[in-house]
Design a protein that fits this description.
Length: 155
């Protein structure tokens, strides 16, 4: 009986570790807001690779990067191209876009005011780019805006 109990707890621990590992390598289930203020989950972006450009208003170079993100979103319909604003409110993001002359962005904008992404992935640089494959698996993180690979590349 004691061996069976040990085996049960060991199996449960292994399953818990596997679950934790899989969560760390996938688009996290974080409730965010879009530019209209509607709530959705980051994890709902599946079916296409995701280029997640993480930034805040204080980031150096974010204006240039966001304009480049606009170009990428227009050219690469095979990707979800996401502007992911952290530590900002929706109004702050809207004002930033207005100041930069970005009207009707072609990319998806998500706002993570409490910076919950950092609970799943350590944000070492702002701005930075997180790349997820079409199943939501994290495949890369780089500082700044990294251009997406060519079609047929690792995505």
């Amino acid at each position: 009986m004691r061996t069976l109990r040990k085996r049960f707890w060991l199996t449960l621990e292994i399953l818990a570790l596997l679950w934790l590992f899989s969560c760390k390598n996938a688009l996290p289930r974080i409730k965010v807001k879009d530019l209209s203020g509607a709530e959705l989950y980051l994890s709902s972006l599946k079916g296409k690779p995701v280029i997640l450009y993480v930034w805040s208003r204080t980031c150096v170079g974010h204006e240039r990067h966001l304009k480049e993100l606009q170009r990428i979103a227009i050219e690469r319909k095979d990707l979800y191209v996401v502007s992911y604003a952290v530590a900002m409110e929706v109004k702050d993001v809207q004002n930033s876009y207005k100041e930069m002359g970005i009207k009707n962005p072609s990319f998806i904008t998500l706002v993570d005011t409490p910076v919950r992404l950092n609970e799943f992935y350590t944000i070492e640089f702002l701005p930075s780019t997180f790349v997820f494959d079409s199943s939501g698996k994290l495949i890369g993180v780089k500082p700044g805006l990294s251009p997406p690979p060519r079609r047929g590349g690792f995505l």
